[in-house]
Every structure is written in C-alpha cells, then in structure tokens.
UniProtKB/TrEMBL annotation:
PANTHER family: NITROGEN REGULATORY PROTEIN P-II, NITROGEN REGULATORY PROTEIN P-II HOMOLOG. This is Nitrogen regulatory protein P-II. The modification O-UMP-tyrosine is found at Y51. Gene3D superfamilies: 3.30.70.120. The keyword Nucleotide-binding applies. In nitrogen-limiting conditions, when the ratio of Gln to 2-ketoglutarate decreases, P-II is uridylylated to P-II-UMP. P-II-UMP allows the deadenylation of glutamine synthetase (GS), thus activating the enzyme. Conversely, in nitrogen excess P-II is deuridylated and promotes the adenylation of GS. P-II indirectly controls the transcription of the GS gene (glnA). P-II prevents NR-II-catalyzed conversion of NR-I to NR-I-phosphate, the transcriptional activator of glnA. When P-II is uridylylated to P-II-UMP, these events are reversed. Belongs to the P(II) protein family. GO terms for biological process: regulation of nitrogen utilization. Homotrimer. One of its GO terms (molecular function) is ATP binding. InterPro entries: N-reg_PII, N-reg_PII-like_a/b, N-reg_PII/ATP_PRibTrfase_C, N-reg_PII_CS, N-reg_PII_urydylation_site.
Length: 112
C-alpha cells in the first residue's frame, strides 16, 4: 500500500477528483495549505500599494492506494492538474505499513 500526496492548484480540485474516480480510485483527504516552490510567491497591488504574497494557496490531497493502482493514480493527477504554468504542484509517494478501517476492523488492502 502507498499513500500518494499531491499538492495542486485549488481550482483543479474537481478535475483531479473526477479523474481519480474515473480510474477507480475512491476516497481522498483534502487539506487547504499554503506554500511556495520555485516561483517564491508573487506581488499584488491592493488599494494602490504593492505587497508580496510569499505563500500561495494550494490544495493537498492524500490518497491511500493499493500498490497496483499507484501508477494510474499518479497519471490521473498529472493529467488533470497540469496547466503548463509554474506552480502546478508536486506528487509524493510513501509506503504505508499498516491500515485499519475503524468501523469494521478490516486491515491493510481491505481497509482501503
């Protein structure tokens, strides 16, 4: 089992969710986060004054998937989240040692 963590632009959330559902990946956790990468934020003008926005709003997705579904999940996220502009995001994949569904007590792949 793996956990796929993706940081994407907020307006791409629905497209990514639809793409994951289409490839058979169900269930994800969404968190609103702020951060920056290579773009290091940007400047905006508010009431005539210029100010720097150091941390940009992003969406962090966490998806627990079986090992066999990792590649499909990553491809679906990349296709749906890509705009071709800087700041499209990143995907990280980590191992999950153990998972338990609280309601039924199912473990590991059955819990996903």
């Amino acid at each position: 089992m793996k956990i796929v963590m993706a940081v994407i632009k907020p307006f791409k959330l629905e497209e990514v969710r639809d793409a994951l559902t289409a490839v058979g990946v169900h269930g994800l956790t969404v968190t609103e986060v702020k951060g920056y990468g290579r773009q290091k934020g940007h400047t905006e003008i508010y009431r005539g004054a210029e100010y720097a926005v150091s941390f940009l709003p992003k969406i962090k997705l966490e998806i627990a998937v079986a090992d066999a579904d990792v590649t499909r999940a990553i491809e679906a996220i990349c296709t749906a989240a890509r705009t071709g502009q800087i700041g499209d995001g990143k995907i990280f994949v980590s191992d999950i040692e153990h998972a338990v569904r609280i309601r039924t007590g199912e473990t590991d792949d059955a819990a996903i």
